[in-house]
Amino acid sequence: MTNMIPIIVLVITSNLISLLFFSQLSTATNTITRYQSLNDGNTLVSNDGTFELGFFRPGSSTNRYVGLWYKNIPNRRIVWVANRDNPIKGNNSNSTMLVISKEGNLVLLTNNNQTLVWSTNITTQLLSNTSSHVAQLLDNGNFVIKDNNNSDQQSKNFLWQGFDFPCDTLLPEMKLGWDLKTNFNRQLTSWKNWDDPSSGDLTWGIVLSSNPETVVKKGTIEIYRSGPWNGVDFSGYPILTITPIFEKKFVNNSNEVYYKYSIVSKSTISIIYLNQTILRRERITWIPKENTWRVYDSVPRDDCDDYNPCGPYGNCVHNVTPICRCLDGFEPKSWESWNSFNWTQGCVRKGKKTSSCGVNDGFGNFTGLKLPKTTHTWVDANMTLEDCKNKCLENCSCTAYSNLDVRGDGSGCSIWFGDLIGLKQVSAIPQDLYVRMDASNVDSNGDISGWHDKKSHTLAIAITIPLVIVLLLLLIVFYVHKRKTKQREMEDKLDNSILAKKEDEDGRYLEIPFFKLSTIIDATNDFSNDNKLGEGGFGPVYKGILAPERQVIAVKRLSGSSKQGTKEFKNEVILCAKLQHRNLVKVLGCCIQGKERMLIYEYMPNKSLDSFLFDSAQKKLLDWSTRFNIICGIARGLLYLHQDSRLRIIHRDLKPSNILLDSDMNPKISDFGLAKICGDEQVEGNTNKVVGTHGYMAPEYAIDGVFSIKSDVFSFGILLLEIVSGRKNKGISYPRNNDNLVGKAWRLWKEGNSKELVDDCFGESYILSEALRCIQVGLLCLQQHPSDRPNMVSVLAMLTNETNLTQPKEPGFIIKRVINEGESTLENVMSSSINEVTISLDAR
Ligand SMILES: *[C@@H]1O[C@H](CO)[C@@H](O)[C@H](O)[C@H]1NC(C)=O
Ligand SMILES: *[C@@H]1O[C@H](CO)[C@@H](O)[C@H](O)[C@H]1NC(C)=O
Ligand SMILES: *[C@@H]1O[C@H](CO)[C@@H](O)[C@H](O)[C@H]1NC(C)=O
Ligand SMILES: *[C@@H]1O[C@H](CO)[C@@H](O)[C@H](O)[C@H]1NC(C)=O
Ligand SMILES: *[C@@H]1O[C@H](CO)[C@@H](O)[C@H](O)[C@H]1NC(C)=O
Ligand SMILES: *[C@@H]1O[C@H](CO)[C@@H](O)[C@H](O)[C@H]1NC(C)=O
Ligand SMILES: *[C@@H]1O[C@H](CO)[C@@H](O)[C@H](O)[C@H]1NC(C)=O
Ligand SMILES: *[C@@H]1O[C@H](CO)[C@@H](O)[C@H](O)[C@H]1NC(C)=O
Ligand SMILES: *[C@@H]1O[C@H](CO)[C@@H](O)[C@H](O)[C@H]1NC(C)=O
Ligand SMILES: *[C@@H]1O[C@H](CO)[C@@H](O)[C@H](O)[C@H]1NC(C)=O
Ligand SMILES: *[C@@H]1O[C@H](CO)[C@@H](O)[C@H](O)[C@H]1NC(C)=O
Ligand SMILES: *[C@@H]1O[C@H](CO)[C@@H](O)[C@H](O)[C@H]1NC(C)=O
């Protein structure tokens, strides 16, 4: 839509020459009037000093442009260009100026040649008294033309505004989308090149439909779609990533459809732009301390974000191979091409496909899916989910339905016609999609949770019978094998423990067993579901029994994408195996074969802390002294990781499910070093960029992705409060919870009522002073600023000595949510100034 700026290059006739007697702007101002021009070399500065507008030459280009940038950011980043498609050519810079013409338009002249290079285009009926027109640079970066004599100074009805003609950058407050009255579309268009601001072929805009979504395109090819708005965010975003520094807004009514965001804190600078080089849309945030822009979000994020990776009814699951699978109740349309990893044909409904519609139809309930493309949809904001279902049943071409808005208990109705495409498994999306399918594939509850294996009975039988046969065969083979040669067994045993060697810093050789894949497959019954202990970050964990000694082990099968080579991986594992501490789970060995990477741990019969702590029956087994022992044990383990070991491991994913308990209820930290081993910058687990979901992440990580030892301390603080209170911290979670654990702990602390936080199930049988001390230490660990948090040495000292403790300040991540009635925006307010967190990143 940049063509909306007219391309006018004409030789000025004598009547325009009268314009040319202007006084030049001398001091910094934000306004151009009829009598003051802006010459090349001078700039306009917004009132509050944030933005500056002037002439610039991009890269090695010889052209000059009028552009806008943040005044106080050293390496000037151009965020808007007035004449991107009409450059000032050549070197005539001192004679170029921006003026208000007699007609009240903003025009760019190169007066050596008396040439009009560029002009705004205000239609004549608006031009009442042009002599009072001024061009002004507003504090939000909007460069506008307005009538200075307009009595209504606050009027947003500018005669013209730069925000209507975005370039490659969406500034806060800028609207992306449509004015339906005039059929005017504002969309981002990338620069052609790093030194050429003219329109490139990467765009980001809103695609109109009854349930609109935003789409990034390269030329005419769609490369990313956001999914429709769900009341809080676009469907493709894990909803818990709502970051309190932004307020996002989506407006859809008969006049306009647009998206915009604003930044809660004035001093934070964060923008969205299109990067033509890497073909991505990125959000970047300025980090003053480091003097750089840091990339905060970059889409497409993964293969699954591609436009339609898996074909109709195919569900894309990032991090597993192959990434595509059919929705439960569906099967590949062509097994042949599906098996050769060509997913374009997608999947089709299982069961009878021909008979009349409606007779045998049910709906599968899928959770955690990015909603399908909305080109053919129908919506009603007032309909209940039940009516929505009936509406869908009425029409044979309806294939799915869902709520429109996820806030509260969900409301409204959206129904889809035709094939469902672009499905992606995203964690933490509270919007369920109900997909029409053959009733025989729907279990009694209609529940089918995404791609997880909650199979119907027929499926279960279909799988169990072959499994039993295979197991029997295995048993026979095993028996025969065992009887035949005892000698072979000995050989095997040796094979199983080929020793991997690595010289450590002291010149000694470190050794760990290096298991064969076949050994692990035997031990875990080919990774059977029965042996599955759970699913942690980085992959599932299986119980296994090593054949000769019947030693029980836990096998962590690292999912997919380790970015390291085999050698580096081996080295890291060996180093981790070297970390030995009674509060760390012991690494027994590893298995690397082909793409498979596995870690073998000692087996912990009592499972993890969360299975006790958050279970009303089980938690009674954890009396106070046990819990205190657990707290101190975790602290010791963490201290070892942080300081005593030579590796200086930052755990990054400390939470109750990663604390295992041995038979004496001693805590053992697991999953340590995995972020390092997996070469992973973010701890993503098997979910995708779940920044902030856990409720265990420090603010500087959730907001800026910065992780340090002190962020582990933060997570430890949460863990501590959870252990003492027996309650789960909901963190920055879904708005239904009004008060999280940290918030509550702080409130009670202020009121001097901390005792109330202590788990009810103790009754009177606990040591009050110890519990209060734990809570205080917990709050100290949760300080907003990393440098205010103690290190683990001090934590341990504070927990175990009767020293005086410092008073905590308000913790870092108390988030209050306000949903105004009527106004449907969701405000996320951080209790204390977010800037300090975003900007003072001394955590590194
Ligand atoms: C101004 O813009 C309108 C609509 O975009 C267009 O029809 C008109 O021709 C333009 N005027 C000039 C002078 O370019
Ligand atoms: C433009 O200016 C540069 C140096 O500022 C000079 O090298 C170049 O020759 C000039 N080009 C023209 C066309 O005047
Ligand atoms: C600008 O150009 C004019 C000629 O058009 C010349 O007289 C003047 O010296 C130039 N000024 C500067 C600062 O180069
Ligand atoms: C100046 O104008 C003439 C036509 O009058 C044109 O041929 C020439 O290219 C222009 N020069 C510049 C530098 O714009
Ligand atoms: C326009 O405003 C100027 C003062 O800014 C005034 O002198 C003039 O009479 C006005 N013209 C009209 C047509 O209202
Ligand atoms: C402002 O407009 C009024 C009429 O609306 C006119 O009388 C007055 O002269 C104008 N003043 C300026 C400064 O333009
Ligand atoms: C968007 O607005 C249009 C026009 O008011 C309406 O028909 C449509 O249902 C709305 N869509 C959503 C998702 O609210
Ligand atoms: C585009 O991305 C590349 C690679 O991350 C980066 O080097 C470049 O600076 C980016 N372009 C812009 C305009 O920021
Ligand atoms: C995948 O299958 C489709 C249709 O079956 C075919 O058109 C396409 O060329 C195939 N793609 C590849 C990469 O083989
Ligand atoms: C669909 O599944 C979700 C999560 O399992 C559940 O909360 C919801 O109630 C289910 N919907 C229906 C209609 O059963
Ligand atoms: C939907 O409900 C709102 C208020 O809850 C009401 O204003 C509106 O008229 C209703 N729309 C329809 C189509 O019933
Ligand atoms: C079903 O929906 C489609 C798409 O909106 C529409 O064209 C068709 O007329 C509908 N059929 C019935 C029976 O309502």
Describe it.
The chain is α+β, with helices and mostly antiparallel strands. It folds into six domains: 165 residues, Orthogonal Prism (Agglutinin, subunit A); 134 residues, no CATH class; 137 residues, no CATH class; 39 residues; 94 residues, Phosphorylase Kinase, domain 1 (2-Layer Sandwich), CATH 3.30.200; 233 residues, Transferase(Phosphotransferase) domain 1 (Transferase(Phosphotransferase), domain 1). It is built from 16 helices and 48 strands. The strands form 13 sheets. A six-stranded mixed beta sheet has the order 1-11-10-9-4-2, with no helix packed on it. The protein has a five-stranded antiparallel beta sheet with strand order 31-37-34-35-33, covered by helices on one side. It has a five-stranded antiparallel beta sheet with strand order 40-41-42-44-43, with helices on both faces. β43 and β44 form a beta hairpin. α9 runs antiparallel to α15 and α12 packs antiparallel against α14. The structure holds 2-acetamido-2-deoxy-beta-D-glucopyranose (NAG) (12 copies).
Topology record:
Layout: E1 10-11, H1 14-17, E2 23-24, E3 31-32, E4 36-39, E5 44-45, E6 51-56, E7 65-70, E8 78-81, E9 96-100, E10 106-110, E11 115-119, E12 133-137, E13 143-147, E14 160-161, E15 169-170, E16 176-179, E17 184-186, E18 188-193, E19 196-207, E20 213-218, E21 221-228, E22 246-252, E23 256-263, E24 270-275, E25 280-287, E26 292-299, E27 314-316, E28 324-326, E29 330-332, H2 335-339, E30 347-349, E31 361-366, E32 369-370, E33 377-380, H3 385-394, E34 398-402, E35 413-417, E36 423-425, E37 433-438, H4 457-484, H5 486-496, E38 498-503, E39 509-514, H6 517-523, E40 532-536, E41 539-546, E42 551-557, H7 566-578, E43 587-593, E44 596-602, H8 609-613, H9 624-644, E45 659-661, E46 667-669, H10 674-677, H11 699-704, H12 709-725, H13 741-750, H14 768-781, H15 792-800, E47 815-819, E48 826-830, H16 834-839
Parallel strand pairs: 2-4, 27-36
Antiparallel strand pairs: 1-11, 3-12, 4-9, 5-6, 6-7, 7-8, 9-10, 10-11, 12-13, 13-14, 15-24, 16-17, 16-23, 18-19, 19-20, 20-21, 22-23, 24-25, 25-26, 27-28, 29-30, 31-37, 32-36, 33-35, 34-35, 34-37, 38-39, 40-41, 41-42, 42-44, 43-44, 45-46, 47-48
Helix pairs in contact: 9-12, 9-15, 12-14
